[in-house]
Amino acid sequence: MNTHLPDLNFDPRFEDPRELAALNRRGFLGRFLGGTLAGAALLSLGSKSAHASVDMNDMGAAAAPDDEQFWKLVTKQFLIRPDLAYMNTGTRGPSPRSVHMAQIEALNRINNDYVDFRRNHYTMDYADAFMAKFAAYVGCKPNELALANNTTDGMITGTFGPVLEPGDEILYTNHCHGAGTNPVLNRAHRDKLKVGVIDLSDPKLHPPKSPDDLLKAFEAAITPRTKLLSFCHTNYTDGLFMPVKEICEMARSKGVITLVDGAQPPGMVKLDMHDLGCDMYAGPSHKWMLASMQSGFFYVKEDMFDRIQPVTSTTPFAGKNMYGEDLSTNERWLDRMGSARQYTSRGSSCYAKWTAVNAALDFHNHLTPEGIEARIRFLAGKLANGLRNIDGVEVFASEDPRLHAGLVPFRIKGVPTRDLNTKLWEDYNIYIRSVTHLQVGWDANRASMHIMVTAEEVDKLLGAVKEISKSVNG
User: How far apart are CA 415 and CA 431, in angstroms?
Assistant: First the structure.
């Protein structure tokens, strides 16, 4: 069978070429979830089953987390190969069909008639409604939210934006991602700042007994020099959820600005920026939100606008344009300066990817963030509990729901983590990853439990781990 599809971008290792070929043959007759370009509620379903179509409105909102009949119907909306158990959403979340098709159709319309697309589809009203929807999804005001290319984009702005003086200190943890820590090191070198590291390498913190153990570690690290605290909402290494609200309350009481690396939670758990109480939050749309690559968001608390300077922005925030004209009466400039958009305004953008994010928001909102989170927690609990019952397996996920959600880190005694990845891929068609940082004594495999994973696939992984562990450990 010829699977060469020049007009569709896909990875044949993960995505079913038959489904993509079917999309190609059918063109764009399928309808999409409300809010996409077509604005309809009908989703064409495919992978892991025969080609079919289902009206999402007939499915209703998310069912009970253990309702396998319902959630199997949801998995059929993904283009994943029928024989593949995809468990690495923590790196890249495959888009459901409605999101995939919304982006493809937007690209087609842009290239077919750009003027019509901007005048009649991606209008200012559409963009405003999209931003209001996005803000509601993450729990903030529309003016506190900016579009960004990814989490790293926001982490760079959040690190270089605060006004700091030589000798001031920035704190981060040694389980943060390099995309968050390298900007800290770069700015410290440039501006003669101090850097402090919160040590999370103690095995007792993987997992900790309670959120208070983490809060104490953060509070103990803050000094009178500390001005900025940068940390992960969820460690990508061990899946540990930080007590963000408590940490931010403590930091604010000491006059410390908080920047949260939210590379994992958006789309995994229900978010509320105002409840978290952080000053800045950077997140992606391409992981658990299941949207396009190179898309994300950057949140800045409204009362921090005057303390965070734009970094990668073309907005004339000094108050004058290139001709020296005063912009204080310019309505467009005032609107931008009164919002987080001032931090990411940088010229041309890809409207197709934001169309995909808009469709992803509709997908999540239809199933409800609470329903999706419940399903993720159900699958993660099933996997973690099953792994705990296998001899030779160590599980690092906390049983406390405040400290754990969709990432399940584990290790098989005597099996190198990368070797396990390879064996699961080659022998069982299961795709997971590992995270290794020997500098802090961390080396573990990591499985992501998202809604494209079935309970049967969790059992398949448990069976594979049991077989592999038994072959090594007896």
Answer: 17
Q: How far is CA 240 from CA 12, 43, 102, 400, in A?
A: 32, 35, 34, 10
DSSP 3-state assignment of 97?
helix
Tell me the pairing of strands 296-300 and 145-148: antiparallel
Residues 174 and 177: their CA atoms lie apart, in Å, by 8
If we measure between CA atoms, which residue out of 278, 274, 206, 199 comes closest to residue 243?
A: 278
pLDDT tens-digit readout, 79-99: 999 899 999 999 999 999 999
Query: Which of 176-180, 344-348, 397-401, 439-443 is predicted with the least confidence, judged by mean pLDDT?
Result: 344-348
| Residue 186 identity | N
Q: Which residues contact 305 (CB under 8 A, 6 or more apart)?
A: 337, 338, 340, 342
The whole-angstrom separation of Cα 456 and Cα 434 is 22
Structure tokens at 81: 């190969």
C-beta of residue 231 within 8 angstroms of C-beta of residue 257: no
Give the C-alpha distances (Å, rounded to integers) separating 31 from 17, 42, 44, 51, 122: 20, 5, 7, 14, 18
Do 282 and 273 contact (CB within 8 A), yes or no? no
Walk across the sheet containing 169-173 and list its strands: 145-148, 296-300, 280-284, 257-261, 226-232, 169-173, 194-198
- Collapse the DSSP code of 396 into the 3-class scheme (helix H, G, I; strand E, B; otherwise coil) and give the result: coil
Residue pair 69/60 in contact (Cβ under 8 Å)? The answer is no
| Interval 296-314 mean pLDDT | 91
CA distance 148 to 32: 25
